[in-house]
Design brief:
The radius of gyration is 25 Å and the shape is globular. Strands 1, 2, 3, 4, 5, 6, 7, 8, 9 and 10 form a 10-stranded antiparallel beta sheet that branches. α4 runs parallel beside α9 and α11 packs antiparallel against α12. The chain starts with about 30 loop residues before the first helix and ends with a helix. The chain contains 12 helices and 10 strands. Bound molecules: NADPH dihydro-nicotinamide-adenine-dinucleotide phosphate. The site of NADPH dihydro-nicotinamide-adenine-dinucleotide phosphate has 18 residues, from α9.
Length: about 475
């Protein structure tokens, strides 16, 4: 039998009854067991993520299937057959921690690879682009996805007001309103790094790279009506499907690909290759196979291992670097900052976040510091120092310099950008049924929005193509006809 104890290990004789002066009370202040129990309950919640609060995840293994060492020296890709452990977390963006899983929304798609040179966090989405290209817009954009301050309800008016004033969002909104905006389970969607990153090879040459993770389960989706029905049956559809699949040993798999752009091409492409609202067309930069990962182990404790899994694009490894993408650069700051606020200063030392390689740094003390000194020597608590055993910088890891020049200014991120061409290319890929669902999903999402905002949005859709704008208008007419018939 395991003996029940307090958090300090003191045996507990009675875990059913509080200590009182007589059967009818009052309670005694000295009942520390009761005080500890109540105090812990009060502290069970931590701040939920401002975005991507509702999530599902699991552990797995990545395996290299193709040689890409000409592009990157990252050790996880060093040889075919090499395996690296990872933890994945998927999420919706807008809903809170208790939101229903099967809502139409973009999905987060985050992978933490525990490599021998530290953790590589691939903090992506299930879409290759995003709603904005300048991080200055991010808080405003997210406010439109969250609750109205007075009604405490989500506001379609706020969403369409923002989108109709932000044509760079059209590409992502098209994906959101298409079939891929409502995947059936987290296993039925792709993942994308979305941003452009760097690969750096053993000769210290830089390439620009985009990451793709293609579902091996196939794409599958719910229509709006099907997702409403699903949510009526269960709010936890993703947790049930992902946890259940792994529990039943049906391990989901994704194949990894990269697109590679030579460093000097960045000045030559007709689009800005660091613009998060754009893809690199496959015809220009074909997908190169890299490997495959499977998810094969559920967490033993959801809170400890999935809720506290802290991903940040700041976590890169030798051979993988950042890029001039402005949104990526802001995320390098804001994700780690969010985790310090949410989990605490030493969030990287939590077991799910802790690297599997040695960690040496000179950060000191701080709230809940249970790791002690990490410098490699008791006398080394500052740097530089004369202590041979203490941790030191290693110039051999220096990245090649970024060849960038320009005047510091607040550049208008909408100047000279074609916001219509890539949504048009996507729209043109859809068959008639996919288009019909796209138009109807968009029309449904516009319900209740003032006409002048809808007209402004439709003006943008017309610029993508008359067929697209006209399709949404026809779907709106169908909806309003159905509403009149019902009256
Ligand atoms: P391609 O025809 O070579 O690629 C089109 C890609 O579109 C497919 O490979 C697939 O991406 C994705 N796709 C296919 N069906 C759907 C769908 N129903 N909903 C969403 N995405 C779908 O053309 P381009 O590379 O020139 O791209 C054309 C358009 O395709 C882009 O403007 C973009 O909107 C979209 N796209 C492009 C991607 C890219 O990285 N080039 C990635 C995803 C979408 P996947 O293979 O990743 O499943």
């Amino acid at each position: 039998m395991k003996r029940l104890t307090t958090t300090a290990g003191n045996p507990i004789a009675d875990n059913q009854n509080s200590l009182s002066a007589g059967a009818r009370g009052p309670l005694l202040m000295q009942d520390y067991q009761l005080l500890e129990k109540l105090a812990h309950q009060n502290r069970e919640r931590i701040p939920e993520r401002v975005v991507h609060a509702k999530g599902w995840g699991a552990f797995g293994t990545f395996k290299v299937t193709h040689d890409i060492t000409q592009y990157t020296s990252a050790k996880l890709f060093s040889e075919i057959g090499k395996e690296t452990e990872l933890v994945a977390r998927f999420s919706t963006v807008a809903g809170e921690l208790g939101a229903a899983d099967n809502e139409r929304d973009v999905r987060g798609f985050s992978l933490k690879f525990y490599t021998e040179e530290g953790n590589w966090d691939m903090v992506g989405n299930n879409t290759p682009v995003f709603f904005l290209r300048d991080p200055y817009k991010f808080p405003d954009f997210i406010h439109t996805q969250k609750r109205h301050p007075k009604t405490n309800l989500r506001s379609a008016t706020a969403m369409w007001d923002y989108w109709s004033l932000s044509p760079e969002a059209l590409h992502q909104v098209t994906i959101l309103m298409s079939d891929r905006g409502c995947p059936k389970t987290p296993m039925h969607m792709n993942g994308y790094g979305s941003h452009t990153f760097s690969f750096i090879n053993a000769s210290n040459e830089r390439f620009w790279v985009k990451f793709h993770f293609k579902t091996q389960q196939g794409h599958d989706f719910y229509t709006n009506a099907e997702s409403a029905e699903k949510i009526g049956q269960t709010r936890e559809g993703y947790q049930e499907s992902l946890f259940g699949a792994i529990d039943n040993r049906h391990f989901p798999k994704w194949k990894m690909f990269v697109q590679i752009m030579p460093e000097e091409d960045a000045d030559k492409t007709p689009y800005n290759p660091f613009d998060l609202t754009k893809v690199w067309p496959h015809g220009d930069y074909p997908l190169i196979p890299v490997g495959e990962f499977e998810l094969n182990r559920n967490a033993e404790n959801y809170f400890a291992e999935i809720e506290q899994a802290a991903y940040s694009p700041s976590n890169i490894i030798p051979g993988i670097g950042h890029s001039p993408d402005k949104v990526l650069q802001a995320r390098v700051f804001s994700y780690a900052d969010a985790h310090r606020y949410r989990l605490g200063t030493h969030y990287e030392a939590l077991p799910v976040n802790a690297p599997k390689c040695p960690v040496h740094h000179y950060h000191k003390d701080g709230n809940m510091n249970f790791m002690g000194q990490k410098t490699g020597h008791v006398d080394a608590y500052y740097e530089p120092n004369s202590i041979d055993e203490a941790a030191k910088e290693d110039p051999s890891y220096a990245e090649p310099p970024l060849k960038i020049s320009g005047d510091a200014d607040r550049y208008n991120h909408r100047d000279g950008n074609d916001d219509y061409g890539q949504p048009r290319a996507l729209h043109d890929l859809f068959d008639a049924d996919q288009k019909a669902r796209l138009y109807m999903n968009t029309a449904e999402a516009m319900q209740g929005v003032p006409e002048e905002i809808i007209e402004r949005a439709l003006g943008h859709y017309d610029l993508i193509s008359k067929e697209y704008g006209g399709g949404i208008r026809a779907a709106r007419a169908t909806l309003s006809g159905a509403a009149q018939a019902a009256e």
